Amino acid sequence: MPSELNSTLQTILVVDGDVITRTVIADYLRHCGYRVIEANSGEEAVEALQHEGFKVDVVLSDVSLPGRMSGFLLSQWVRQNKPGVDVVLSSVVERVAEAASDLCEEGPALAKPYDPKTVVDHINRLKVGKSSR
Amino acid sequence: MVLREAQQPDVLQQTVTVLLAEDEILIRIDVAEELRRAGWKVIEVASADDAIDILKSSVIVDLVVTDVNMPGQSNGLDLAGFVARERPKIKVAIMSAHFVPAAEPGGAAPCDLFISKPFLHSQLVDQLRPLLQRGTSSAE
């Protein structure tokens, strides 16, 4: 990650088709002091990245996404069209949480609000509640 | 964290959680940021189907703000109907450019508030606040 992440309010685009995972990860990053926008799919992510008002610095995306654009294709699109934007791809929730934690350590807040395991545990608890109701 | 579980005591229990269903991402981001600026927690979904999925989970929601026309099996009116049947304590606000509540049977939208698009996003919180003051929390 570039060191200038610390200098200004950075914007992270979280891309995940799973609402619970995306919402918990996005909120974690907000607690770390980032501006966070969320996209449900690769197509939505591209639309957000093309909007000049958002000025995304980092894309944190799941590999598997709803729609025709996977995380890999999104990453390719970013490299070709937004070369200054970093992309972090993850395929399982533990890796997503770790990636978010790494971003937090480089972020504007003084300390991480909670560790990645807490994030994963919270996501898993909510998903258990979702399937059992 | 944004998502609260019904069973869990949480320091955020007093915080309002809004479930925002809107398939236009640029509108959704803008509206979500406006709601967060008011200190509210926002769960963003791109379809009524995803919203219903969240409402079937243990996540606490106080208010649903939804568009009408969205991709998927259900639209915003179906979502409002689901809330009325299954989670009646949750308030519903519908925002739409095309839907006309007066044309509905009974002349009213199946919601607590109808917002005609386009609207000033900066005024949205003021429009929604009275709904929450009339009773919040879906913890059932």
TrEMBL record, chain A:
Residues modified to 4-aspartylphosphate: D62
Domain of life: Bacteria
InterPro entries the record matches: Bact_response_regulator, CheY-like_superfamily, Sig_transdc_resp-reg_receiver
Record's keyword annotation contains Disulfide bond: no
Family matches, as CDD domains: REC
Key words of the record: Phosphoprotein, Transcription, Transcription regulation
A family per Pfam: Response_reg
Response regulatory domain span: 11-127
Protein name: Response regulator
Organism: Pseudaminobacter soli (ex Zhang et al. 2022)
Automatic annotation (TrEMBL), chain B:
Modified residues (4-aspartylphosphate): D67
Gene3D superfamilies documented for this protein: 3.40.50.2300
Keyword terms, alphabetized: Phosphoprotein, Transcription, Transcription regulation
GO biological process per UniProt: phosphorelay signal transduction system
Residue ranges constituting the Response regulatory domain according to the UniProt record: 17-132
Taxonomy, superkingdom: Bacteria
Pfam families associated with the record: Response_reg
Protein name: Response regulator
